[in-house]
Amino acid sequence: MKKSTLLKTVAAGAVTAVAFGATTAANAETLNIVSWGGAYTMSQQKAYHEPWMEKTGDEIINIDKSGNALAGLRAQTMAGNVTWDLVDMLPADALVACSEGLIEPINHDEMLADAPDGTPPSEDFIEGSLTECFVPQIVYSNIVAFNTEMFPEDKQPDSIDDVFNLEDYPGKRTLMKKPINNMEWALMADGVPADEVYDMLETEEGVARAFAKLDTIKDEVIWWEEGAQPPQLLADKEVAFGSAYNGRIFNAAVNEGQPFEIIWDGQVFELDGWVVPAGKLDKVKDYLHFATDTQRLADQAKYISYGPARNSSAKLVSTHAETGIEMKPHMPTYGPNFENALPKNDAFWADNIDELTERFNAWLAQ
Amino acid sequence: MSTISSGPRPADYPNRRPEEAVAEPTVMTTADGTPLKVSLSRKLRRSKIKAMLLVAPLFVFLVVSFVMPIFDMLSRSVDNPEVPTELSRTVAAIEGWDGEGLPPETVFAAAFQDIKEGAQNRSIGRVATRLNYEESGARSLIMKTARNVRNAEMPANAKAFLIDIDEDWGDPAIWHVIQRESDPYTLSYYLAALDMEYNAQGEIVEKPEYMQLYVDLFIRTLWMSLLITFLTLLLGYPVAYLLANLPMRISNLLMIMVLLPFWTSLLVRTTTWIAILQSQGVLNDMMVAVGLISDDGRLQMIHNQTGTIIAMTHILLPFMILPLYSVMKTIPPSYLRAARSMGASQLYAFRRVYFPQTLAGIGAGGILVFILSIGYYITPALVGGQSGRFITNFIAYHMQSSLNWGLAAAIASILLAAVVILYLLYNRLVGVDNMKLG
Amino acid sequence: MAAPENATAPEKAWYYIFRVLCALIFLFLIGPILVIIPLSFNAEPYFTFTEAMLSFDPAGYSFRWYEDFFTSDEWLRSIRNSFIVAIFSTILATVLGTIAALGLSSRFMPYRSLVMAILISPMIVPLIISAAAMFFFYSKIELAQTFVGVILAHTALGIPFVVITVTATLTGFDHTLTRASASLGADPTRTFFRVILPLVTPGVISGALFAFITSFDEVVVVLFLAGPEQRTIPIQMWSGIREQISPTILAVATLLVLLSITLLTLVELLRRRSERLRGMTPG
C-alpha cells in the first residue's frame, strides 16, 4: 500500500510538472526570441520587449543562441519542430539561411513601419542594408580594447598596429577563435590600407601574409569563443588587449566602471538584425513592426553603444539611460571613430569561410 | 505447441517415417511417454525462447533508440544528396563529358534550368554550401547565378549567358567538381577527415601542410589518452593494492573515497579543477602565499594540455582502481608470504609473484580508461584550451559551428571504429558481463 | 598488511613511504571535490580563499550564491526539468533493464555475450558520437527538442548500468529457489514477486540510482537534443562555465556533491544488504 501511494504521488507530481510546462505556452502568446545574450539582450529587453509585453500582455522568452543560430535553424527545420519565433542574426548567416529556405522573405515596405516623416523603410534604413530575408537593427563594430591600467599613462596604445607590437605593448591578447576580423587586422597592421584588405585576402600571398603576421603574436594569444569572455579576461587582467564587440566594452566601462579603452583604428563594422524562421511570420509580424520602428531603434541606443540601422533613429540618439552620458561619441559611426573603419565583406566571407576556417584551425593546432 | 509432432504414436501409424521406426524402441521416455531427448530439447528451446522474450523489449528499445541512430549517422559520412537532387538535369547531362576543356552546351543549359528552379524554390543554398566545401568560391558563384537566372528566360546560348554572369563558369574546375560529386555517395568527407583531397586531375592527394589538422589531432588524442591511462595506472595501482590488503572495515571506508568522485557530476569535477588550477585559483594562490612562485610568475596550468591531463586523470582514476581492486582481491596474500618465506626479497616477490597475477586487472582497467578517454568531450572542451583539445571537440565543432555534418560524421565514424576495436578487445579479455560498478 | 616484524630497515621505510603515497593519492581523489564546498560560501565573487575566510571571520562567508541559485527562475526551471527527465528515464531503464537481466542471467540465453555487448554499448560509445547520432535520428522522427526525445535518449544511456548491476545480483542467485517455489505450488508470477524480486531488489535499486545519476549529470546529449524548454542543470552549468564561472556554479556543485554522497550511501547500504541476503560475507 505504502509503496503504491508513493509511486502515485511521484507520478502525479511529474505529470503536473509536465502539464505546467505545456500550459504556460498555451494561454498567453509566448514569443521565443533568440539573441546574443548579455548586455545586448538586455538592451533589447529594455527597448523592445518590455514595452511590447506591457502593451500586449505577451510573454517574451530570451534564448541566448545567436552564436549558433544557423545551426539551430537547420536542426529545428530538419526536426520539423521550429521553436524559435524570431532570431537575431548576422547578415552573412541570414544570406545562407535565406538561400536554404530556412527563413521568411520580408517585404520591408509593407511589413515595417515608416519613419515619422513618412519616409518608407526602404529609404530610411542604411543604404544597402536590407536584404531579402533580413531586417537590420543596429550597426556594431568589432574592435580591440585594452585595459588602461596595464600600460603606463604616457604610453597607451592607440592603433591596430600596437596590438601586434609585442615589444612596446607586451602582455597577453585575447582574440576571437575564428579567422574573421583577425585576418583583416593582421593585414592592416602589416601596412595594408583598409580598402585593399579584401582584395589582398583573395590571393594566396595575402592569406599567407596575414597568417605570418598572426604568427608573430600567436604565443601571446588566448582565444575566446563566447562574447562575454573578453571583458571578463580584461577585467581580471589575464590579458592586456582583447578583441570584442564595442557594445560589451562600453557596457563594462560605463556600467561597471572598468578601465577599458577602445582602439577605434581598424574597426571592422557590420550590421545585425532580425530574421523570421519559416512559418513564423504571422506570429511575429506585429512585434517586428513595433520593434523596428524609429523610436524603438533609437531607444536601444540608450542602453548600448550600437548605432541604429535607421537614419531617422540616428537623429534621435541621445544619452545613456543610467549614467546620462552622451552616446554619440561611443557609436562606431561617430566621425572620429570612423576614420579608419573597414566594412565587413559578407560576400568574401561567405565564399572563404570554410577554407579559411579550416586553415585557421590547422594553423592553431600547429 | 506440443500438438505438432511429438508424443507417443501407435506402432502402426501409417505416415510414420522409416528412421523413426528404427529409433523408437530404444528411446528413453519421460513419465508421460515423451522421448527424453525430445522432452529435454523442447524444454531447452522453451527456456531459450523465454530468455529471449525477456531480453527482447530492451533489445528492441536499444536498437531503435541507440543503434539505429548510430548507423544513420554513419551513413551521413558518405551521403551526398545535394548535387544529385538539386542539380539533377546537370548531373544527367554531364555524365558523358570527357573532362576536356569545357562541357558541352547541353550541360550549361541543364545547369541554367537547375539553378533557376532551385532559386525559385529557395533550395539552391544547399548545393551552394555543399560545393563550397570542395571549391572555395562556389557558394557565391551559385548564389550570384541564382539571383540572375531566377526570372530569366532560357537563353539561346546558355554557355555564353552563364559565363557572362560569372567568368568562373568558364573555368573547367567547377565542372570537374560537379561531375565528381554527382554520385549519391562520396568519399570526400573521409578524405577531409584524413587531411586529404582530390587534386585537379581527380587524384587523391595529401592536403598542403598548412591545411593539415585531423591526423595530428587523432594522434594527439591517442597519445594523450595513453598518457592519461598510464597516469591512472601509476596512481591507481598502489591504492588498489592498499584497499585489497587492508582489513575489510578500513578498506570499505577508504573505498568511499574512490567511489565518491565516481558518483560526483562530471561537470562538478571539471569545475573544481578550473577553480583550483586557474591562474587566480587555489593552487596558484597557495604557491604564491608560501613563496614558491612570485605573484607575476603564476603558473598556467589550465586551458592547455596540463589542464586536460590533470583533470582527466582525476576523473578516470576510479575506472582504473575498481577493476584492479577486484582482481587483487582474489589474490591470496599467502602467495606473497610463501615467496618471502622462501627467501625472496620484498621487491622480488612482488615482481615475480604478485604483479603477474594483476596483469588481467591492468588490462581491464587500462583498456576501459583508454576507451573512455579517447571519447571524452566535456573536460577537454572546458579545460583544454588550444593544445589540450581532443578529436571529439572537432566533431562538436562541425556539428554546431561549421555545420559540416558530413565531415562530423566521417570523423565520428573513424573514432567509433577505434572504440569498437578496443571494445571487442576488452570483451575478449574481460568479458562485458564481468564488468562491475563499485 | 602490517609492516612485518622481520622486515629490513629499507623495507620498513618503504612501508611508511607507501602509506604516505597512498594518502596523497587519496587526497588527489577527494580533495578537489571537498575544496569547492567552503569556496561556495565565499562572500566575495572569487574562486579562492579570501583572508577573511582563512581567519574564519564570519563576514568572509555567506549564503549569497545559494540565494542566487534558489531565487533564479532559470535555475529553478532547470532543476524541474532535470528531475522530470531523470525520473522518467530511470523508470523506463529500470523496468526494461531488470526484465532483460532476468533473461540474460538464464543459462539458456543464446548469443549471450553478443547481446550483452550491444546492451552495454551506450556506456562505451563516446557520448559525443551518441549525441550527434541521436540528434540526426531524433530530428528525423520529430523527437528532437521534446521531453520524450531527451527521456528516451537518457533511458538508452542508463540501461547499461541497470543491466550490469542487476545481472551481477543475479549471478549469485540460486536458481533452485525458483524450482523450490514452483514445486511448492507457486505459479511463475507469484514466484517472481515473492522469491525473485526480494532477492534482486537491492541490485535493481542501485541500478536505478546509477541510471538516475547518469541522466541527472548528462550534458552532451542534452546539449544536442534539448530545446529551450528542456534546459537541465548540467546545461545551465555548462553555459555558465563556458562564459565565466560565477560562484553560483560552485553552490550548485556543492549541492550536487551532497546529492551524490546521499546516493552513494544508499547504494553502499543496498550492496551490503544484498550480499547478506545472498549469504555472502558482508562488505
UniProtKB/TrEMBL annotation, chain A:
Record's keyword annotation contains Signal: yes
Looking up Pfam families in the UniProt record yields:
SBP_bac_8
Keyword annotations for this protein? Signal
**Signal peptide as annotated in the record:** 1-28
| InterPro entries, per the entry | SBP
PANTHER family from the xrefs? ABC TRANSPORTER SUBSTRATE-BINDING PROTEIN (PTHR30222:SF2), SPERMIDINE/PUTRESCINE-BINDING PERIPLASMIC PROTEIN (PTHR30222)
Output this protein's name: Spermidine/putrescine-binding periplasmic protein
Q: Which organism is it from?
A: Caenispirillum salinarum AK4
From TrEMBL, chain B:
Q: Which GO terms describe its biological process?
A: transmembrane transport
Q: Does the keyword Transit peptide apply?
A: no
Which keywords appear in this protein's UniProt record, sorted alphabetically? Cell membrane, Membrane, Transmembrane, Transmembrane helix, Transport
User: Which SUPFAM superfamilies does UniProt cross-reference here?
Assistant: MetI-like
The membrane-topology field of this record reads: Multi-pass membrane protein
| One Pfam family named in its UniProt record | BPD_transp_1
> Is Coiled coil among the key words of this record?
no
Gene Ontology cellular-component terms for this entry are: plasma membrane
Protein localization = Cell membrane
Please state every residue range assigned to the domain named ABC transmembrane type-1: 218-426
Q: Which domain of life is it from?
A: Bacteria
Write out the transmembrane intervals. Answer: 51-71, 222-244, 253-276, 309-332, 353-378, 405-426
What segment(s) does the record annotate as region Disordered? 1-26
Q: Indicate the family of this protein.
A: Belongs to the binding-protein-dependent transport system permease family. CysTW subfamily.
Its protein name is Spermidine Putrescine ABC transporter permease component PotB
Organism annotation? Caenispirillum salinarum AK4
Source species taxonomy: Bacteria, Pseudomonadati, Pseudomonadota, Alphaproteobacteria, Rhodospirillales
From TrEMBL, chain C:
Q: Which Pfam families match?
A: BPD_transp_1
Its family remark reads:
Belongs to the binding-protein-dependent transport system permease family.
What is the recorded membrane topology of this protein?
A: Multi-pass membrane protein
Q: Where is the ABC transmembrane type-1 domain?
A: 79-267
What UniProt keywords are attached to this protein's entry? Cell inner membrane, Cell membrane, Membrane, Transmembrane, Transmembrane helix, Transport
Q: Which organism is it from?
A: Caenispirillum salinarum AK4
Q: Name one GO biological process term.
A: transmembrane transport
Tell me where it mainly resides. Answer: membrane
UniProt protein name: Spermidine Putrescine ABC transporter permease component potC
Q: Where in the cell is it found?
A: Cell inner membrane; Cell membrane
Q: Which InterPro entries does the entry mention?
A: MetI-like, MetI-like_sf
Q: Where are the transmembrane segments?
A: 16-41, 83-102, 114-138, 144-170, 191-213, 248-270
User: What Gene Ontology cellular-component terms does the record carry?
Assistant: plasma membrane
